[in-house]
Structures are given as C-alpha cells and as structure tokens.
C-alpha cells in the first residue's frame, strides 16, 4: 500500500481488481453525470490561501462529530453494496474507520447486516436508513439499529425515487451479477475479488434477505427493493422516525437553504449537505456551491456535515473553510476497499489525513477549528 500515494492510485488499482459492473456502479452518477462532475470541478476551483512564517508546529486535526471525539473531521459515508467491492467490505471498512478514530456509517443496502457488523467490531457505528413503503420493516430496522447500539441514525432524504445510472443498466448490475458471458469473463480475470466475495459472510442484501417473508430468492428480493422506495415520504415521516429512534438523528441529502431551515427545526443533531454523490438529481448544483449558503443559514442551530467529491485532504480543508463541521467520504474509501480491503481503506484515510495536515501547515493553520473563509484565496 506504500506506493499508493493518492486516492487516484487507489482508484486505478480498484479498477483493475473489481469486476467492471461493481466498479462502475461505484464510479457513476445519474443521467449525464453533470452534477457528479460539478461536485469535483467546483471543489477544485476553490483556491487556498498560502501563508508563510507562521509557527505551525504541533497541528491538531482532532475534533468532535455529534459531540463525540474524532481524530479528524471525516466519517465514512453509507455505501450500498459495499461488500461487493470486497468480500465483507462493510466489516473491513468499519474496522479501518474505528482504528483510525473516525465514524463509519452502514447503509440499509449493505451486504453485511447490522448484526454482522456489530458482532465483528468493538465500537458503535452509525446506521443509514431508507424509509420504505413497508413501514413495519422500517420500524424493525430502526429497532435492530438500536439493539446493535448504533450511535446515530442517518436518515437519507434524497432518494424517493432512484436516479437512473446508465452504466448500471448497460452492465446488468444486479446482486449477484447477471450471468452474462461478458460478466463471467470479467469476474474470471479478477480472482482475488472472487475469492474475497466467496469467502464473505453474504452475497446479497444482508439487512433485508431473511427479514421479509419469501425474500430468500435474490430476484424476488431485487424486485421488492425496486418497489419499496417511497414517493410519499415527507417531513411527517421525519417526525415519525425521530419519535421511534432513541438516539441522535442525522438528515442526509439537504441541498437547499429552505429545506435546511426546516431540517434545523426537526430536532436532528446534524444534516449532511449532499446530492448523493451526483447519483440522484442530475442538473442539481454541486454540494460545495450550496454549502456556504446552508452553513450561513443554519450552522448555528445544527451541525452541518458535507459530502460530494472529497478526494483529498485539500478538499476536506475547502469544505471546512466554507462552513462544514466535518466531511463524509464515499468513493475515496470505496476505491481503497476495492484496491486492498481493510488495508486499502486504512490507506485512503491516511492519505486524506496527511494531506489535510500538510495543507493546514502551508495555510498557517494549527487547529481544524481555525479553518474558515479567511483561509480561502478565491472561489
Ligand atoms: C456506490 C455508492 C453507493 C451509495 N449508497 C448509498 C446508500 O446506500 N445510502 C446513502 O445514503 N447514500 C449512498 N451513497 C451516497 C454516499 O453516501 C455519499 O453521499 C456520496 O458517495 C458522497 O460523494 P463522494 O462519493 O463523491 O464522496 C452512495 C454512493 C455511492 C458512490
């Protein structure tokens, strides 16, 4: 892993190791991928202020997230099918995050179940919830997350309908992969991946299979999931979830100032400025372009977290400068997982941590709490 010096190196290695259908599932965005590209392009446009001759010895990236100590302002975002990038991917990523002292968030659409992960790691993790039509199932999921002592519930609010990702359709992206000749040939050339997935605890959606009657069959399961995203979901459902979840609530997928104002009044502990990594509303603005307006409007009432396009410590610095309290990483750690399992996720976190540290030094910043708009040269 030592020769992996940046997230792009991990991405290249993941591309060689992970079957194309799953790599492109992680990589892609919705429709034209305009919003996916904007997330990165707008971050890169933000230039940092180079400061000199400031004593920057003994810098500190440590902070708190939702009041809990974190070694740096970063958490691992919920990623569906994480365990298809590498067998037992959710457990490995959670272990890497916990060893690094940062939060990990498990997706509803994970391969390893809540109980699998809880049984394999030492500390609590966050659980991400999709509200589905089957409210009895949602209630059970929330109870399972509470029983597993999850330390926060991340309610995703930007997916009442699934954004179309062309590449997934073209690749026959299903779980397990559609048995097309092209997929079989591709998997045959990725033996390390195949072995890790074969050895993994599960091959399908661990939180759902076996918890709904008749869902043992993977095709029936996929159809069930497809019909479960609930287009009626609204702010009343947020109230309902807040009422049945005993712990801290995070609302993920806020991209609008008016929505942020409503979110701040729900009693949620945090919101995540997010457009689902450019995978939902194509044509929506980049997250970084909306962050300062949202942080100005509600930053004093609710913790403002940020995701979308984070590929380096410089990006974390940029988001903090524009008002984020901490960031979530999606693809950056997923590339690490595909590239080398737990060691790859550890490397991804290390890379971002080191880059953030050097960026702090060269901008004359000793403490992450000092990072603000004064540290930006130009937007
Ligand atoms: C492959 C993939 C799967 C995802 N699955 C979920 C999910 O199950 N639930 C969720 O709330 N967000 C999901 N997201 C969105 C991420 O949590 C996060 O918002 C996004 O990846 C951030 O952008 P980045 O990948 O550029 O860091 C997914 C993103 C990717 C790339």
Task: Describe the protein.
This protein has 379 residues and is of the alpha/beta class. It is built from 15 helices and twelve strands. It has helices at residues 7-17, 20-27, 34-45, 89-100, 114-120, 135-147, 166-170, 181-188, 191-199, 218-226, 235-244, 257-264, 287-298, 313-321, 331-362; strands at 47-48, 63-65, 68-70, 74-76, 105-106, 126-129, 152-156, 248-254, 270-273, 303-306, 326-329, 376-378. A hairpin with a 2-residue loop joins strand 2 and strand 3 (68-70). The longest helix has 32 residues, at 331-362. The structure holds flavin mononucleotide. Flavin mononucleotide (FMN) binds at residues 25-26, 39, 77-80, 107, 109, 128, 156, 252, 274, 276-277, 279, 307-310, 329-332.
Biggest sheet record? 8 strands, parallel
* Average of the residue pLDDT scores: 95
How much of the sequence lies in strands comes to 5-15%
User: How many strand units?
Assistant: 12
Helical coverage, percent range: 40-55%
What is the first-to-last residue Cα distance? 34 Å
Describe the structure in brief.
This protein is α/β, with parallel strands linked by helices and 379 residues long. It is 44% helix and 12% strand.
Write the layout of secondary structure elements.
Layout: H1 7-17, H2 20-27, H3 34-45, E1 47-48, E2 63-65, E3 68-70, E4 74-76, H4 89-100, E5 105-106, H5 114-120, E6 126-129, H6 135-147, E7 152-156, H7 166-170, H8 181-188, H9 191-199, H10 218-226, H11 235-244, E8 248-254, H12 257-264, E9 270-273, H13 287-298, E10 303-306, H14 313-321, E11 326-329, H15 331-362, E12 376-378
Helix pairs in contact: 1-15, 4-15, 12-13, 14-15
This protein binds flavin mononucleotide.
Residues 25-26, 39, 77-80, 107, 109, 128, 156, 252, 274, 276-277, 279, 307-310, 329-332 line the site of flavin mononucleotide.
